[in-house]
Amino acid sequence: xxxxxxxxxxxxxxxxxxxxxxxxxxxxxxxxxxxxxxxxxxxxxxxxxxxxxxxxxxxxxxxxxxxxxxxxxxxxxxxxxxxxxxxxxxxxxxxxxxxxxxxxxxxxxxxxxxxxxxxxxxxxxxxxxxxxxxxxxxxxxxxxxxxxxxxxxxxxxxxxxxxxxxxxxxxxxxxxxxxxxxxxxxxxxxxxxxxxxxxxxxxxxxxxxxxxxxxxxxxxxxxxxxxxxxxxxxxxxxxxxxxxxxxxxxxxxxxxxxxxxxxxxxxxxxxxxxxxxxxxxxxxxxxxxxxxxxxxxxxxxxxxxxxxxxxxxxxxxxxxxxxxxxxxxxxxxxxxxxxxxxxxxxxxxxxxxxxxxxxxxxxxxxxxxxxxxxxxxxxxxxxxxxxxxxxxxxxxxxxxxxxxxxxxxxxxxxxxxxxxxxxxxxxxxxxxxxxxxxxxxxxxxx
Length: 446
Prior knowledge:
Layout: H1 6-22, E1 43-44, H2 46-69, E2 92-94, E3 109-114, E4 116-118, E5 122-127, E6 134-141, E7 148-154, E8 159-164, E9 170-172, E10 178-180, E11 190-191, H3 195-204, E12 209-215, H4 227-236, E13 238-240, E14 242-245, E15 248-256, E16 263-267, E17 270-276, E18 281-288, E19 295-301, H5 303-308, E20 326-327, H6 331-334, E21 341-343, H7 347-352, E22 365-368, E23 372-373, H8 383-396, E24 410-415, H9 419-445
Helix pairs in contact: 3-4, 3-8, 8-9
């Protein structure tokens, strides 16, 4: 245990004890015999939908207030635009978890929330980090159960190529996450640096979205954080997503992946570990011993707690970090503003490798090993570590399918992890769920 950084020792010990004493989180909590076939889905009363929508409005209004306090909202975003189509006509609520059946459907756990989408489309243009090319991205509403899908505009006669936001579609993880089309005819079509946008969608609670990419095949870096994406998402508005079933319009409930674990992936002294829990909790640590301005940092994010206390870390903004990881509070104010960062002495090496062609002091934090921050001030305490947490949220979003959350009901602890390790963990999680679902099916057939 001595080789493990001190802040993580008590976390791992407590979680292991909790997991062993509580038993598997799926035991006694899984939905009972729900059907993935839409024709057999059950329905809930309309007032349940209205209550969920009301909670959505309150949550988004609170989050926008947090964002405005940091000066990260544009003049156009005076109030959150939350639409309620369910008040204009009658809707049913599908209790079925997914539009298309997945092997682990019966293991999924309800959140009590409705799936959401954007109220309107919004376009964002900018230069990509690594390719340095201009790209225009348009976010469009999508039906409940559609999930998040990239539509890449391909020059020539091929038109649009669809790439699902799926961890199995990751083709590269060098300093960013790159998705590639799976079909033979679409081979070679890629979209890079998807993690910031996916993090914003996951953090804002947008479950279903079509992402049209026109230009350089890489998402715009913008200011290096997820704050600009959040601002545009809020400007577009968020509403419950709907789907048409047998001629009737319905909404769909949102489900979480079950916490399967413990699961651990490791490379050298870097690791990601997950321990089953009733709701998601993410803890992230980084260590740069040769860059004193960064050093060792730990942060954590509890989405459920953050909804109740969006300004959780405001009072401790200038306090020194102790044994406990610093709480990030609300995603919009505590995580989204954190910018990508790099070490000054490594910049030329990355450029020689054909990377960061679109990087500048306007869209990245740069820190020198000897001189400290080149372009201060920091937006939030422990901004580098918060940005790594932002990246993890975006990469975990790739585990979500059918309009459901990609963040499992587990305490996920990451230390000095990379995009490659994030993706490896996501694949290990999906593999574990598929294996458990297969065993469950065999048990029923026996």
